[in-house]
Amino acid sequence: MKTGCGNFCEFGPRVKDGRITFTYKTDTVGESAINIYDINTYKLIDSIKVTDEYRLGRVCSIEVEGLNADKICYLIERDGKESLDEYSTGIVGRDKWNDKSREKDDYKVYSSIANCDYTFTKSKPRIAPKDMIMYKLHMRGYTMQHSLNRWDKGNYKGFLKCLDEIVDLGVTSIEFQPLYEFEEMDLTEATVVDEHFQAHTVIHDSGKVNYWGYNKGHYFAPKASYFGERQAARNMKYMVDEIHGRGLEVIMEIAFDNAVSEDVMNKALKYWVKEYNVDGLHILGRNLPIGRIVKNPYLADTKIFYHEYPYDVLMEEKCAKHLFISNDEFLYALRAVQNHFDGCVSELANNSKRQHEKFGFVNYAANSNGFTLFDSFAYGEKHNEDNGEDNRDGNNYNCSNNYGYEGKTSNRAINTIRLNNIKTAICAVMMAQAIPLILAGDEVGNSQKGNNNVYCQDNKIGWVDFPKTKFALEIRNFVKEMIKFRKANPVIRLEEPMHMNDYHHTGIPDLSYHGREPWMMGIGDEKKAIGVLYAGEYSSDDNKDDILVCYNFYYDEEKFALPRMPGNKKWYLALNTTGDFGELKYIESQHYIIVPGGSITILVGKETKITNDSVEIIKHKRK
Length: 623
Hints:
The protein is of the alpha+beta class. The protein contains eleven helices and 32 strands.
């Protein structure tokens, strides 16, 4: 085995021409060492001393010849203590999810080297923000209750076998909860004294599972239990390639805590884009150096999602739109008015038109850190007792309503209300201007039994259920049709903010509000109904249809005036959320429409030829 000075260029292990370069940081004054282990038996093979000749400041870099990267793993020893390489590209020792047999090895894990020469064969989809429809899932939770072979559950193989279902739904972008390495076992250290009065450290498994993976991770290594143990790097790249081949984007959630250095954050984000070809990054964590992150030139065309950017950071952006605010503002505006928690349509209307030239927004009616969409209409209170924290964990402010019974019920009247509410919420998300996001399972009415914080529920509570009931199938079909409608009507999803005036001189404003009288909508806090008119002439697409969305969150039906449109455009009924999509139906009155309580009606304004005998939509040829 020969050693030489490394190049100090990139942290972590790098393989070139049969030689391995290890580069890492050290805060110790003396020597450090790289302890080399057999990747199969975990027996120590050699300990490579890293002396001052391989050191530059606090960085050590050593090149080693004579090791097979595929057959070794390693740990870095500093001051007599071994630790993982925080830049390691693989982790071995927890190749199986929540593996109790690890106890015999004191739950020890090792750094490894992702020596993978995979070549991507599919191009990135390059989906414009206005065309995006996101779908968020957990790799393990999404596959565990699907009809799959046991060995395909909880991993990328099972996910790829379910990919057709996601494509069929019509979404464009898949957001994955953490796919990088993290410790799923809740391990704690304790010091015990033996009969010889010698102190020892003992590691104990509490039995609780870190299901989501939002604790500190190993940010350069794909999770082995998801991606096939020693071939994790190759298999994850293959999965990304297959998703791209179906025309979908890959967006990775990455959760940082304040203990992670800025350098690690920036290098990790660049690494997933460069090495794994991901399209977007949803960064989780408070008080992160988001300003520095978005200025990383390697991420200039990568979609970055964060809960709140400093305004000056957003205003300094000069690249194509790639920064997006993803938070609960739309969720609470919708849920408060829908479930009658002193909500008002003015707040919902403002959130529905969130948009900016330089940056975008993400809207959703449910997310992983709260109630599922079904549960927000089936539970009035959270039920997190199974988490072992006496129901103290999770959000206490949910704006949820059980509509007469806590939890699932066979009562038809209650289930009809819940079904309508789910469809209405989905409709509201799809008819807002920003990027819509669907939480996996919401399209089939998945329930978490009222648990709004399933971070530790690696079981049927936390896994997504895909029932084939009439209730579930009706929701799924409705979601598909709403997605089709959104895609077919680009005026709903303009990249530019609405100005609520007629700056193109088309005859009507780009966006306007209506109520019992047209063009005269006053939006007070007491209002629970509003008509929102998107003017089709402001669409850059050939489709110039006007879209009028009538939101009625009163208990009783509400009358909406229909504004008279320029030219020969007439109103057609496309949908009321108490029913389903069908053929467009001409509105005989053309002056008003009645909308049932707790529902949304969508009207389409189309150019129409009317004779004594017929009403005919004028179809224009696409340019």
